[in-house]
Each structure stands twice: as structure tokens, then as C-alpha cells.
What we know:
Blueprint (H helix, E strand, L loop, with lengths): L1 H12 L12 H11 L16 E9 L4 E11 L6 E7 L8 E8 L2 E2 L3 E3 L2 E10 L4 E11 L7 E4 L2 E4 L5 E2 L2 E2 L11 E2 L16 E9 L4 E4 L2 E6 L2 E9 L4 E4 L3 E7 L2 E7 L4 H21 L7 E7 L8 E4 L2 E5 L12 H11 L8 E2 L6 H18 L4 H8 L22 H23 L1 H14 L4 E2 L1 H9 L7 H7 L12 E7 L5 E7 L3 E8 L2 E6 L3 E4 L1 H4 L2 E11 L4 E10 L18 E2 L17 E2 L2 E2 L4 H27 L1
Parallel strand pairs: 1-14, 20-21, 21-23, 24-25
Antiparallel strand pairs: 1-2, 2-8, 3-7, 3-11, 4-5, 4-8, 6-7, 9-10, 10-18, 12-13, 14-17, 15-18, 16-17, 19-20, 22-23, 26-27, 27-30, 28-29, 28-31, 29-33, 31-32, 34-35
Helix pairs in contact: 2-12, 3-4, 4-5, 5-6, 5-7, 7-8
Amino acid sequence: xxxxxTLSLFARAVRLPDRFSLFANWGRWLxxxxxxxxxxxxxxxxxxSPLPQYYLWAQLDYLKGQLVVWEKVTYNNQTLDSLSEIVxxxxxxxxxxxxxxxxxxxxQEVAATLKGADLEVPxxxxxxxxxxxxxxxxxxxxxxxxxxxxxxGQDIMALGNWVPLAAPYRSPRFATNGQPxxxxxHPLTTLGDPFFSQVADFDVTLVTALPLVVAxxxxxxxxxxxxxxxxxxRARDFTLALSPRYRTQSVVVDGVTITAYYLxxxxxxxxxxxxxxxxxxxxxxxxxxxxxxxSLAIAQVEPGYTSLVGQEYPxxxxxxxxxxxxxxxxxxxxxxxxxxxxxxxxxYGVVGNDQVYExxxxxxxxxxxxxxxxxxxxxxxxxxxxxxxxxxxLGSYPMKPVNRPLTDFTDEGxxxxxxxxxxxxxxxxxxxxxxxxxxxxxxxxxxVTFRDRLATGNAxxxxxxxxxxxxxxxxxxxxxxxxxxxxxxxxxxxTVTGGEPVGLALSATASRPLDMVRxxxxxxxxxxxxxxxxxxxxxxxxxGEHLLTVVVQDASGANxxxxxxxxxxxxxxxxxxLTSGLISGAEASPALTQGTKAxxxxxxxVEDGKSISLSPLSALGIALLxxxxxxxxxxxxxxxxxx
Length: 643
């Protein structure tokens, strides 16, 4: 909470003129950098949350389409590896619209490197697991003409994927479809949705020279003139759409405020936004789980050179104005598109997935849910829509497996046919095989299990198989190239009991003798065991709720997995009794045998058994001193400009 206040004070203190150069005035950059220093967390303070924390201050020149941004990221290493760098996915860099000004790690300048659309920030010291670090980035963005997800046109500016985000770190749990391990890098493509992100907390301050109407992913905390402060907890991204001409209309559905943002001449389309989205949101809240955000914004944007029609973001949907011409109502393309994008609030927003290597996992489901909703509400329309949106378009292309990566395609139509439409065909066959009740019970379990986490295609398929005695492998084999689905299915089981002296005892078995069992905790490899026995102790994995993935494999190489949320209880034993033998009968991850004290956050000095730390007054004194230096630098920069 204090950080928001600091950012607000910073935003009010820094008053850039309406006309400014983004590539000069280095005295001003220095002054702003000095003012930024008090915002940086003091060394030695651990992150209160395992989620990445993003604090952004952005100055927008709307007429020039230029942004000056300061970003502070607190990153907690939840991987099982020691990290030497943090890689940020920077989507605007794909088209050369990003310019890095500076990068700091714990206040120390570092030589960050932009490689394609990935910004590599080296760490002065390795970051141990469970340790956290603060990274500050100062950068400039140019918003191009032409519309699209990140663009401007027709009095609308869309800021989609504008925030550099720390990339997910792929462990072997994610290597189910050919994904390389380590940092998930951003492909240099505008095809599909080449994004893969973790849930994080966002606090954003936006300052503009012009009065604008702003649609955002987050909640508006307060507005003072042309300064907006937003908060978006537990979101995968933070997105904005802005216009001086936006009009709005809102409805409240199941306690959720749905607001349409549209140009004045598109009032009828704006009305259709809320009329279509509201019932779909309510239906999905009952079918899956309650909608996760207090609001949903639907903003009109321009299509751009990628012919964008719709794009999902957490609590914010972009709808292109080109979809308005056909009108709305059940059965229209506009309504179908809105249903599809609302479904993404659960499948992409609540449950994340690798949209580069396994885009079918959210796109096929969103396509199918949009059409199944029509089947339930207007059954007579369903055959026509299914033929038009799915079956009728597949004959134009050679068949490809549904689980092909985004990078396997160069044509948007081909990609859409295989991933969205053929993917929806698979979901329909799965639905018909399981039956409505079992299918939606499985889907609810999938959403709850992977809420705020990252799912995989194998987890989806194996969770479906766990719901039925029918061998689903023949269905899986028709649509996917995942290697483990043999003609005879391997059905695993997992027993979880209280461990000794405390913890959780795991026992994995299957319908055939097993050759190896691999255990993953959250997103990292934990251990391998030939016996299938393992004890989870709090000293090793941490107290609280974890995502446990157990992969069983028989002698033929066939494998299957069980995914379950487990809660590890605290241990009454003192920490000094901890030994590396706590995971017995298994080959443990090397990271678990390494100490976690090594961190790039310096430890406090200890004298006579007491740690020395800065008092609040000392910290305030440093902040005031740095603020004074910033003011002096600002003054010198201003004098230089006058001369």
C-alpha cells in the first residue's frame, strides 16, 4: 500500500511539459532517475508475495503516440533453479517500437541486452530459489499508426502487450509438446497470440497531457485530472485502450460491472457488447467457476494490418470496429466473437497456458464454449453456426495435428482452421464421449486445479481420462501427436496421506507395473522414484498449497499423469534438523540440496546477534536526500534548456 502512495507522490512531483523529446534532455532523465530511487525497495526486504509485482509509472503523449515508462518489478524465484538472469518478453520490440533507456538490479546499473523481443537482464549474483530481487527498467515506446493490439487510429489508441513481462521459466513439466526448457522466449511473429505469461500483481499510474476516456484491465483506484491510478491483482497482463471520443454504457451482471467503450457513431454496437457479454459471463460463472474480476471492459479498437477482430486480456476485451457491419444478436458474428472472448477470461485468464507451443488449449476451448452456449440457448441456430464456424472451413486445408505450435504456421487462416476449428471438433467429440455432466465436472476440476497457474495439454487430456473408464487414447491419437497416448491406456492412481514425522506421504501406482515415477511441485521437477513413494516435507517444498504433478511411466515408455492440489502442513521440528535425506528413496532435484540463503539481496550486518537495519527516519532521510539531489539535477537541466 505504501508503494502506491510513493508512486502517486512521484507522479505528482514530476510534471513533464506537453511537448518533450524522448531522445534528448538527459538531464531530465537523470533527475527522474534520482526521484525514482526512493521507490526502490531497500535491500534485504523479502517479497511478501510469490507472484511478480509490477509497479509502473507512464507518461503518455497521446498526440505523438509516445510513452515514457518507469517499471519496477519485484521477482520472486519460484523455480527450482538458481537464476543468473531474468528474461522479459517485450512485444513492442517485434516491430522496433521499444527503446530501453536503463536497467537496474537492486539499484545497480546492469548491461541488459535486447535480443529480438526478449530483454535479458543479468543479475550481479545468482538468485536462489524462493529469493526475490527488484529490477527497474526505464524505457520509451512509440505507438504506431494503423490500429491493432498495439497501435492507434480513428481516435483510438490500443495499448495491448505494452508492458515488458518476466517470461515464465519452463521446467520439464512444460516440455510436453517440444518446448525448450528455461526462459520462454517471445517469437518474432504477429501471427496468433504469441504470448505466455504468469499471474502477477500490477499497480499502474498513467499521466496524460490530454483528457481521455480510459478502459483498463484493472480497477481505477483514483483519478486526479489527467492522472489515473489502477490496481490489477492476480492478472496475466495489464492493458489499456484510450480515446478522447469514447462513450460508455454499463450493466451489472452477478455483481460484475460490464462496461462498453465505443465511438459515438457506434452506440448500437456498444449496446450489443454488454447485451451479449453479460449473459455469457453469467453462464460461464455457473458452468466453471465465478468470474474472477470485479469488472469487465469491452473496448472498440481499429483492426490494424493484422486484421484484428478480437483480443482477450484480463478483464478487458478488444473488439474491432470491422465486426459491427453485420449487426448483433444471437447467431451474428459479433455475438459469437464476444462469446469467444468472454470465454477466454477463464481459459487464458484464470487458467494460463503456453500460447506459442500449445495454443489449442485455450483457443479450441473458447471456440467450443462459444458455440455450445448457443446450442443451450438457441438450439435451432447451432447446426448452422457449427457448420459455418467449424466444420465447413476445414476442407480448404491439409490436416495438421491440433497440437502444432504457433510457429509451425505462416498463414492466419490455416492456423485458425487447425487450432481453433479442428480443436473445437476434438472438444465436441470429447464432450459427446463423456456426456454433458461428466464433461463439465472435468472442466470445472481443470479450471479449479490450474486457477492462477499454467496448464499443459497433457494435464488436460489426462484429467479427462481420469473421469471415465473409456479408453480415450484412440480419440487423442486422431487429433494430437503427443507420444504417450498408446492404444492401451495407462491409468495412474495417487494416494496422499499424512507423512511422518510431518508432511505428506505420496504413493503412485498404475494399471500396469511402473518403470519410473517423476514428481513435480508447482512448475519445477522435485524428484524421481522407481518405487513411486515420496514424502513431501515443508522444509523442502514450503508450507501451504502446491500443484503436484505425478507422471508415471511403464517399461514400454507409455506414461500418464495425475495432477492434484495438495496442502503441506507446517513442521514442528527446528530447522537445524533438516538434512538432504528428507526425500528418501528418490533422486531429488539438485536445487533441493542447495541452500536458499544465497541471494542477490544482501544480508543485513549482524553485531552481537542483532541485525542492523535502517529505521524509518533513516530511510526517510535518504529519500529526502535523493529527492533533493533529483531537484538539483532537474534545476540544472532546466537551466541548460533555457540557454
